[in-house]
Amino acid sequence: MSDATTSRQGARVGEWFALYGLSVLAALLLSALLVEATGGDWRPVVSALLDGSLRQPGRWGETLGTAAPMLLVAVGTIVSGKAGLVNIGQEGQLFVGAAFATYFGFLVGGPGPFNLVIIVLFGAIGGALWAGVAALLKFWRNVPEVLSTLLLVAVGGQVVAYGLSQSWLLLAPLGDRGNRNQVSQQFAKDNRLPSPEVFGNRIPLAVVIGVVSAIVVSAVLARTVWGFRLRMLGRNPRAAQRSGVSQTGYGVSALMISGAFAGLAGAVMLAGGGFAFGNYQLVPGFATNIGWTGLLVALVAREKALVAIPVAFVFAGLRTGSSFVGSTGVEGRITDVIQGFLVLALLVPPAVMFIRDRRRAQAAAAERV
Amino acid sequence: MTPSSTGRNGADPDVGSAPAVDLRKITKRFGAVTACDGVDLALRRGRIHGILGENGAGKSTLMKMLIGLVLPDEGTIYIDGIQQHIHSPHDASRLGLGMVHQHFSLVEALTVWENVALGETGRLDPTAIRNRIGDIADQYGLVIEPDAQVGNLTAGLRQRVEIIKCLRRDPSIVIFDEPTSVLTPEESIQLFDSLRQVVADEGRAVVLVSHKLDEMLHAADDISIMRQGVVVDRLLASDADAPTLARGMVGRDVSLRSERAALGLLAVDDAPAAVHDDQVGDVVLSISGATLRGASGVHALNGLSLELRAGEIVGVAGVEGNGQRELGDLLSSLISLDAGSVSVNGRRIPDGRSGAMAKAGIGVIPEDRHDSGVVLDMTVAENLVLVDQSNVSHRGLIDQHALEAFATEMIEQFGILCAGPDAPMWSLSGGNQQRVVLARELAQHPLVLVAAQPTRGLDVGAIEYMGDRLTAAAAAGVAVLLISSELEEILDLSHRIVVMHSGRIVGEFDRSDVDLERLGLLMGGAAT
User: Fold this and answer.
1) Neighbours of A25 (CB within 10 A)
2) Which residue ranges make up each domain of chain B?
């Protein structure tokens, strides 16, 4: 039996690789076709993508820095996903988290390292509270969290924009805002996340926070009673109800933790960003799609926190690389389409395997009848 | 042992002409398993042909080939003497083959006539369909209200709808697959009356697939017994008796009580050994006045009161859909009552509070294990500790070694067939999933064990095992509540029997003085 099992598993792994290879190849072919069809040449586009994400000086540090908040968002998404909840409002939770981090960062304003902890902590709290609104609506009034989290993105944007227009909230004092009318104060150097330089690349500490978070969450979900019960709730809510896993208790915590990670992502973008994310200050549109992309990372990683780490780096590479694509004469936003193709390509194999597994299971069941 | 030439109803079967259906050397393999192995079968008009066999004997596969759901690997099918290839249910229906399935394929939200019209093509003519239902109803005594909503009908009436659906296409060959599994004894008798009429008046050929011996003896003319994909015996019902049939079906003499129960052979005086007074202890579980309004305003539970003592098995008899599911859900903390209470050892347990019932010592083998009994996407080991992780964890961390050791022990002790503790639950067969549930619930040392339809879909060996375990649990002082729609199972195992109808307990018997007729009437709601 063990021989047969091993060979069957071997065949399965082979199938997986073949499927992923084929569908990624198809996505790349389609992307190349698209570039050609819009009057470009695919070779310089690929070259520019690699230059922008890895090859040019300082670029891979930039890519890592971009990957960090995506990874944090994805890790949070995985926590709520395991509980069977669909949180798709990370973009808003991230923004609100960043706003909390800004407000309390300047309100407390202690010595550097201490205030950095305050910034990160309140980023997480802000995101958690914003997701908590959706949790409250769900468990008090049965509003589906898919809708409420999504709609709260727009609400969050407006709320923070209001804060940015009021000097008693987030707006910087007159002397510090230059010619802009919606901008926060800039964090001083000792309030920024350190970015040690390695081989000419500045590696933000945020990457470490992201990777450690992914590892910790993966272990918590797999190895703790809390994670076990959370997974039970996600996979079979009725079995969980019978076994004493309270839907409200675990559901609210899962949603809030998910929001906390998005808020944390906002905080590290604020305090560690510098790179692509503003200039250590909060501005409208600060979230710059990191929330949405992080959601895609979680989707592609299929709720596995450790898998999310490489996926986040790939998506970050597409983002940092795309800024170089413009120089080839091809519209830089074409990478958004490529990213879309890639997401689809990475989602097709699991779907195909799911259908095949189910057919096989049905055949096996028919055999038993 | 070919059937002789006289039918039970005296009509002369057309011996000279070709049989309505003639299957020759039909073989079907699924991987390494041969479901049907060179099966010959001839169905004649005007006769009811019973096909008897255990689960997995190949009956269903054979019938599926006849109606085009499965293609045979070898062999030929003749319909009225002409060789036919049946590739789809559509082919089958064109050739006049119709099947009444074991599991209903009705849409609950639609009315009777709408369900009957489902699958028709062309313009919808409600009046014509209603009239046709009326005609069929008159002709066969299958009276039904065409405008009733199927969701509100009893199982017996739903089956009537299925039969009308099938007869509406005027099939010349009708297959009934385990038709009585959801019916009360009275409804079964009614069914067989109309079955006889279908045969006698119209010269149709009828196949009755079943694993119940008394049905074969009472309703069939010819009987074919299948075992492991082969027809092992053919005989006339008039020449057969129950022990012969049972021997043919199981392949040896049937002696075990549970086996006889599974085959429907249990006589009333075959009661379980009387419970000694010293075995039955104090009241452990007490439900009083449990009331639950259903979605449609009908009371799913209607003032149900029940007491259960340590060491006894109480069987809840009743036709499905009379609140048994809700009773199981209540004791699984899955529903909150509108009124009434549940107490364990005199302490009130809050209903509907997550985990409260399990914590109070109520173990449950649920009616549908996929609903609340197991998590298919988790491993066998994880499913063994779903309810309580305290023995395999330390300070909130799961101790993988302890978990694996516990799982390995349970797998061995309960004979769970699986690849190991880490095998995903969905990879197990239904019977083995059921053993995981049983192992988990018994490992908690429950005060009360609720077993809802615990043997549904299991084969004789597994049924016997389940019965033994429940009996052993009771002997060890557990109060066992057996909720089943299989009357034989209840008669076989229970010390005390209560009858459930319309969400309440309407009658109670001691096992030693059960009045089967009165029991049947109570189940049908005809007596109080």
Assistant:
1) 11
2) 21-260, 281-361+446-528, 368-444
Q: At B278, is the pLDDT very low, low, confident or very high (cuts 50, 70, 90)? A: low
Residue-wise pLDDT for B221-240, tens only, equals 999 998 888 898 899 988 88
Co-location of A367 and A320 in the same domain: no
Answer yes or no: do A120 and A163 share one domain.
Answer: yes
Distance CA A309, CA B336 (A): 43
Dihedral angle at the C-alpha atoms of A173, A178, A182, A188, nearest 10 degrees? Answer: -60
Would you list the DSSP string of B165-218? HHHTT--SEEEEESTTTT--HHHHHHHHHHHHHHHHHH--EEEEEES-HHHHHH
State how far the alpha carbon of B80 is from the alpha carbons of A297, B84, B169, in Å.
Answer: 63, 10, 18
In a domain, A353, yes or no: yes
Measured CA to CA, the distance from residue A225 to residue B425 in angstroms comes to 19
CA nearest to A82 within chain B = B377
Of A323-327, B241-245, B524-528, give the lowest mean pLDDT range.
Answer: B524-528
* Domain presence at residue A144: yes
B397 part of contact set with chain A, CB < 8 Å: yes
Contact, B248 vs B233, CB < 8 A?
yes
Distances (CA, A) of B76 to A15, B22, B93, B156, B181: 38, 8, 18, 36, 31
Q: Are residues A270 and A347 in the same domain?
A: no
What distance in Å separates residue A265's CA from the closest CA in chain B? 27
As given in the structure block, the two tokens for residue B493 are 């195992």
A242 to chain B: which residues are within 8 Å by CB?
Answer: 332-334, 354-355, 357-358, 364, 372, 387
**How many Cβ atoms from other residues are within 10 Å of residue A43's Cβ?**
11
CA distance B410 to A128: 41
Query: Do A311 and A257 lie in a common domain?
Result: yes
Shortest distance between the Cα of A242 and any Cα of chain B, in A, equals: 5
Residue A84, domain CATH: 1.10.3470
pLDDT of amino acid A363: 65
Residue B33, chain A, CB below 8 Å: the answer is: yes
Give whole-number Cα distances, B171 to A131, B71, B208, B495, in Å.
Answer: 60, 21, 15, 46
Look up the domain containing A351 and give its range: 333-369
ipTM for the predicted complex? 0.85
* Residue that the structure tokens 């002082």 belong to: B477
CA A208 to chain centre: 15
- Taking only the tens place, the pLDDT of each residue in A11-53 is 778 888 888 889 889 988 998 898 888 888 888 888 888 898 8
Compute the C-alpha angle B418/B419/B420, nearest 5°: 90
A224/A191 same-domain check: yes
**CA nearest A365 in B: which residue?**
B429
Tell me the C-alpha distance between A66 and A277, whole Å. 9
State whether residue B373 sits within 8 Å of chain A by CB: yes
**Radius of gyration of the CA atoms of chain A, in A:** 22
* Domains: count for chain A: 2
Please indicate, yes or no, whether residues A301 and A367 belong to a single structural domain of this protein.
no
Q: Would you say domain B281-361+446-528 falls under CATH 3.40.50.11540?
A: no
The answer to whether B459 and B54 are in contact (CB under 8 A) is yes
Does B261 have pLDDT greater than 60? no
Locate tokens 């009537």: which residue? Answer: B160
**pTM exceeding the 0.80 threshold for the entire prediction:** no
The minimal CB distance from B334 to the residues A238, A244, A361 is found for: A238
SS3 for A206?
helix
Identify the CATH number of the domain defined by range B21-260: 3.40.50.300
